[in-house]
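Methods — Computational structure assignment.
A single polypeptide chain was analysed. Its primary sequence is given first, followed by the predicted tertiary structure written as structure tokens.
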Amino acid sequence: MPGKSKITKNKFSKVLSLFTKDDRQKMIYIVLGMLIMSIIEIIGVSSVAPFMAIVVDPEIIHTNIYISKIFNYFNFSEKEFITFFGITILIVMILSNSFSAYMTWKIHYFSNMQTYLLSTRLMKSYIFQNYEFFLNTNSSELSKNMFAEIDRIIGGIVFPSMAIIAKTSASMLIFAMLMIVDPIVAVSSVIVLGLSYFVIYNFVSKELTSIGKETSKYSKLRYKYANEALLGVKEVIIQNVEHYFIDRFALASKQFAKKLALSNIISTLPRFLIETIAFGGLIGLVIFLVHNGRNSSDIIILLSLYAIAGYKLLPALQGIYMSITQIRYHMPAVELIAKDFSQLTKETVNDSNSEISILFNKEISLIDLNFRYSRSDKNILSNINLTIPVHTTIGFVGKTGSGKSTLIDLIIGILPSKKGSLMVDNVAITDKNVGQWYKKIGYVSQHIYLMDASLAENIAFGISKEKIDFNLVEQALKDADLLSFCNSLPNGYNTNIGEQGVKLSGGQQQRIGIARALYHSPELLVLDEATSSLDNITEDKIMRSIKNISQNKTVIIIAHRLTTIQNCDLIYFMEDGLIIDSGSYHELNSKNKKFKNMSKKL
């Protein structure tokens, strides 16, 4: 038992660790409110028995020392006193229910706010991770954690935990009231009911933990399969494989629904058994009282008290049982989220408000740079040494898998080097100042992420609509050869372009990515296969535009077509994570056979 108690304590501590000190304090206030609510409810319940006694036997008004004092003070008649007593009980009930309604609102408000706060904190923990974290993690799992698992923690653990405290206090007060009336019957009732719930819970507790883990598993698969189908919907339709994706999602959803239904059945099933026991106990109580020679008025009074107490006690005990089973079922969500919080917050990358400033007036230097992914034993890049002077245009070429894109990720700082240094004007780029380095970079990838928003919002990316500088938007559109396209839209740059730019061609999407990079007037412009979706004429226009603006910018280009990098000041030729040659386009074409063969093929 001590070992089990320690495990329970550790789990409870893990739940509390998810919340801030201020939130934990709010929980205490809510629990205190619940206790007050329980006391008021008991006052209302306990006042019914005396009222019923007076109705059955008005002589009690004169024989009971406390009731007679109130009766004499107000100089009531017996009927007036009964009316007064009934109205007083009704007022207490109204106050009790009003306070209960207020506390119910307070609890729900607190719970929903905690859902918002926890999910926001978790998203912050995720989004500030370095890029490699996202390479190793399925985005659907992160979405599932921020929504489904947080909902499980709040709705399945926090809310039930507070309910346990409230219902336990209410049950104890009801029990105390019954003890005053008849200790033997009170103790017998609580032992029978409490033991019944205890036995049932111990029988199903291990199964609940297993079901809870399975629920997390199938919840993850639901998000994963839905995400894969919707993000690749074009290919799904063309390949005519809709049923494949539907079947995968349906299977995971069916298993999730089964586990959820099973947990609900386990939580509610005992109620039917306990109600039978309670009803049988009430009949037994009547038989017991009759055989012990109690008169009918005493029986009616006791039955009224126990019926009303049972009306409160049974739901309270059932609520306690349901809350405990819910907590057991949803505890795997706490384990998962607590693990993420404890691990991720230690690795969080500093944001762009770092006070360590970065100047880019001279050069970028890579010194003995090596890189391998954390889950790999093989280097992707080895012993990279190069210098990129400011205001030059640099190209990187090589076969797929040669390490070009990884090298770019290291240069822009989105991947931290495992060994070696990235220097900008002799200042090492680290997680302390990488945010400042990002501010100087405009990056365009092969696959452009577009929001379901206006053209202007996609170009100004991450800036609220009211703060967008539309002069910069127009200039970026012009530089990316998008101005005529923009003018053809029904609402110009205020036209919504649809989720992932579904209303646009691949070339238009790429040009929006280029315009986005140019919006902030970056000092370093990086084009990672950025013109791969463009036709030769449009690519030529954009490259001429980039050449014009590159006079006061540093440009790095990874290109599939070698014609894209013909005018670069220097080209690095890569193979198997190494820089095997460098020079101008014409120098490489004349001295390097591999490069020459590549240029012939393309």
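Note: Residues 358-439+555-602 form a domain with the Rossmann fold fold (CATH 3.40.50.300).
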